[in-house]
């Protein structure tokens, strides 16, 4: 015969002499096929059990089903055994082997294959605490959450039902078919799949590894934003910066402020304050004080321009620079409007008003090619096409000049040793004796010329075919006749050190970075004191010490001052391992009227970081 709550209440009153019992809240209602009273073993309790239908409890918006239960009616408390199922509204369902519930405090505890489900995710754990007043659940014995796209595991977790948010700590792992995310602390929103990382975290996939200490990741949209100690490692590149954006769908990444892109295969580094990396195209775009450093064994080469682009596979990298290009190495420097460097062949092409300084020689022309030996990484030769002009400042103030249609130079041990000029060549040369006394000024025309250098000075000039020249005493050649047609001395522009890469450029103010806000500080799930005792009934399986948050078993708080959300000053674009004194505040000015390459924007839009729901 099916018993009801009213029948058992009537029976209890008869047995107990109409005892009046205090109630601290709405009483738990129940329905059971079989009810037994065993005062000797369970004083003051009903033993409820299933015959055809499970025992059912109802209280303040929840329903609980089980095969057997012990109900302490006066204390508004029950223990449920076997195939336990708890439902809150139409959104939360929890199953377990055992559960207990205090109707006065609305505090529940479940153990044994606990499974809690909402419309977007499910939680599996061994034991679970559930505070209905706070609308929070908590586990510390390890749990697994299954989302529509991923599986999340952690040792400690807290679930906020109203926000549909999980807070994880200690050994957090998200497994997705395309990647694995590991973190020490993470908030996850089951409604939209958004994850916020607040400690050392990695996202590892076949194509890349991401590291950050504060970041956001959309586990369903596969996009992310990282703002503290962040880096993205590809197979042959590493991207670092104050703010990084990542899109797994398009294999695209971008960075803002203090950017460093390292080519791990070709030993080169590119720095700037905005970068874009396209993994599928194996290309990098970087601007805002952009500088590329080729880390050669004997002599590193620095290229600075408004915009740098690196394309091609590692075995055939191409570097392109646009607008106000500046090049520096220990024994050579140069400037041009644009530059094209092919690492496989060692060819560097300088285009648009180029100038190269090799020791105390200035070379200009319409186009200049520099060729290095890819095996020894030393300069091999140079070529100047159309309007080739070489100037060397004389020790007493004059200028030795050589010009022709084309020029070819040969290096040995990184020093210019021979220059050949062809087609309509002219020279103007200050001739001196061994003591340095001026003998005269030689002006000569010929079909071609070969110049030989020793100790960085002109040792000999060999005029070839159709030679026509005159040596003028100094007083017979007026100053306005001492410059060949096309003379343009640009010595004041010469780069004499790495610092000159940014000479004359204005201070640069970094783009403000939108940080990822820290979560609001939460009170502990337990209060860690005697006040927790009210959550329990004296008949509970738990004891007060079971409600104490132990060291390592809670989600730690975070301090705001541990992270710079917006960087105030740029860091040196060339690291201390390469340069200790590079000016920190410089900017890039557009070079000429060449069309500017299209960019995707200045920084990551704040819209890509959804706001967290307020508690």
From TrEMBL:
The keyword Signal applies. InterPro entries: LPS_export_LptA, OstA-like_N. Residues 559-615 are annotated as: Disordered. Residues 1-22 form the signal peptide. GO terms for cellular component: cell outer membrane; outer membrane-bounded periplasmic space. One of its GO terms (molecular function) is glycolipid transfer activity. Gene3D superfamilies: Lipopolysaccharide (LPS) transport protein A like domain. Pfam families: LptD_N (PF03968), OstA_2 (PF13100). The keyword Signal applies. Residues 50-183, 241-369 form the Organic solvent tolerance-like N-terminal domain. GO terms for biological process: lipopolysaccharide transport. Keywords: Signal. This is OstA-like protein. The lineage of its organism: Bacteria, Pseudomonadati, Bacteroidota, Flavobacteriia, Flavobacteriales.
